[in-house]
Amino acid sequence: xxxxxxxxxxxxxxxxxxxxxxxxxxxxxxxxxxxxxxxxxxxxxxxxxxxxxxxxxxxxxxxxxxxxxxxxxxxxxxxxxxxxxxxxxxxxxxxxxxxxxxxxxxxxxxxxxxxxxxxxxxxxxxxxxxxxxxxxxxxxxxxxxxxxxxxxxxxxxxxxxxxxxxxxxxxxxxxxxxxxxxxxxxxxxxxxxxxxxxxxxxxx
Length: 204
What we know:
By secondary structure, the protein is an alpha/beta fold.
């Protein structure tokens, strides 16, 4: 076979305010942490199926340390890369940057998956807040003020497309099998038309 694995699923998880209640205390249950727990509950995951994750973009992660191997918690200060192993997320790498809403960060994530976890079928999921054609992966650590309102920096749709194109250009494949947006407002034909050159299917 050309690839070591049958299937790789890649999660780009921008926690943002989905991970904590910024107006009160850091006691919010953590919606993306709940997604991770759901992944870890899968029984008898074949060795030929890999689930990998990059985390960042929030001031506080809520995942209990009992689900983590190689660290006491998910860092709020750095982007981190993980692999699901034996019902835990195992720390693979901690990056120098903590900027999730970046074309460069997303491209680097895709290249990591393609190079280290190449598989016959590959799916990519962006998890976090979504803003339709304006973008997604709203980064709670990088904000700006406009018209008296504070906004989070986002990974916009052209940046997602360009990062995907560049990552694929360094690999031996033309497309990913599918792209998923675990974000609000991202299931539009406009977004699908921009991404169609880089994925066979889109789920949003």
